């Protein structure tokens, strides 16, 4: 009959029934190599010339790629890309300095110094290193908190006929002292961010950034875009607004903006709005015709040059009160050491900024590494950015990361390596040393407009929310929760809240795992969820229970609850009820009201009375019942029939339970103890328990947790559900006549020999990897 089922693509499989123990005996297990701590340290500290060269090249990647640099093929593209990107870096550096609440010249420094060290230490060939709006805003929030305007108020000096008098009633901000303190705070934070990144890189913990999932980063950067937008709107309208930080700062800023909107400077407003419209329109043209335009139009540079010229010619600052850059001195500021006294106040914010800056940079780097088929070392990137921030912080730079728009310019204009980055740094240096004063008449609203125009990519992430909702609702909730928390609570606290929420969703998903009863596809060894398919049969007397999650302390109670629901009874309650019924039966037999006959009760061992594995946690009452029953006449009761006593004993309609553990990756101590107790609870009411599909690592973990003993042995483990089912059916059919083959299968000491005996061989046919039939 089975041959009639064969098709052209069928093939025949014939093998023995495998429990884990038999499989390990037939197929000898490899010995696990266990090294002592001394051996591992000795191996780790062993140094050879090849190992030393490899480590040096890993720490200084420039030694690996620069000697192989193809000058003729790559240098022309890198030069064009470097010049173009350098101009963009200058403008973005000046613009992003407004977000960090420091003078514009420090934004230029941030576009120069970090590139020098990343050129030597970085592993990405394409990213453009420099200031990033989100990290600049995070730095700016700390700067405004520790150095607000209120700390630098001084009496206004009134000049009289013969002398200058300070009027205590009129106060003004000491701008020079404020700027000095603010850049000191920003540089100290930048150095601390670098120290955190270097420490994480040396400890090889770059993998921790994986906990910042794409939905979390998307929600966080979108919230940051809202904060950046509001902070730049006040610059565009140029109205006096009090600085707000921390919880609800977003709302407070909007309220102040609404109150003072009547003080809007029209010249700044027009310049800012025109900048936004022009920059966004030209960027759309660049994107739409990127394959036809050899080099993207550097619209930021063009707008800046034109705006500076107009402001200078029309004298917008004097004539219309426009807010301009004012001071952009030539040359570099001297190196300065960070203020150690500030570290306690900026520790938490610095760590969150370090994580965000690295996460954004490594994400962008991996996108281009995948595109051009090379690898990026995450831990080396931590070290590279850490050293860049430490070095830059000592020279008045703010936190360095990367920006997708700037990196896209570097890559699209022909950049092939970090040679383009070093050329862009040279362009920034030219601006710092020679061209800086030409930008002094530039309106700050133009810079704010450039910042807002570059936020389009971040705002477009909102379109991902409906897609996430359809694909995975927990991920969508992570996105929304992180975004709302970062808007309401601030970026640093919001990021932490989003991370906690993300971890909470993981815990909830594992704490309440999906569990199912499996049924057999007729004439196959395929077992599927009975709720998902119609023509699935539940094997009589056998319950197959599957858990799709690791089992640990948080979900073991839920696991036991779902198991009780699926099997339809509580094993502990069944055991107690059976003992109660047995005690009443013994009393009736003693009183002569009940006789043990062949048609009813017979004096043999009882399933529910002899209970060597009974746990103490179940209470002394049951133990007393069991011990009293042991001293009485032993009887066997058919628990499926009506009992001669008035005790309601739950019906047990199965004789075997198979737990499918292919999706269980680990057990902890609590889960192992509870699971072992569950197995014993079923065994003592006459239900055999088997575990199928355990991975080798899980079995070793169970052994380490002392899961197995004299009652719960390794014989309950099977390679697959089908192996367990065949064994159960074989054992059931041979239980009465004590088949010697079954005895061999249950013998712990003697391995099962190879045999062609039909009772021990599983034979079935497969078409396209789907099993069609099995022989008995």
From TrEMBL:
One of its GO terms (molecular function) is secondary active sulfate transmembrane transporter activity. The chain crosses the membrane at residues 94-121, 128-147, 183-209, 261-282, 340-362, 382-405, 417-439, 445-469, 476-501. PANTHER family: SULFATE TRANSPORTER. Coiled coil: none annotated. Its main location: membrane. It is a multi-pass membrane protein. Gene3D superfamilies: STAS domain (3.30.750.24). Residues 532-728 form the STAS domain. It comes from Onychostoma macrolepis. CDD domains: STAS_SulP_like_sulfate_transporter (cd07042). Keywords: Membrane, Transmembrane, Transmembrane helix. One of its GO terms (cellular component) is membrane. It comes from the Eukaryota. It is found in: Membrane. The lineage of its organism: Eukaryota, Metazoa, Chordata, Craniata, Vertebrata. This is STAS domain-containing protein. InterPro entries: S04_transporter_CS, SLC26A/SulP_dom, SLC26A/SulP_fam, STAS_dom, STAS_dom_sf.
